[in-house]
Amino acid sequence: MSAPSERPIIEWGWAGAPLEGTESGDLHVVAPFPDGALVAVIDGLGHGPEAAAAARAAASILTAHAALPVRELIERCHDGLRPTRGAVMSLASLDGRSSTVEWCGVGNVDGVLLRASATSARASEAIGTRGGVVGYRLPPLHVSTVPIWPRDVLVMVTDGIGSGFTRSIDVEREPQAVADTVFARHAKNSDDSLVFAARYLGRAP
Question: Are strands 36-44 and 124-126 parallel, antiparallel or unpaired?
Answer without folding.
Answer: unpaired
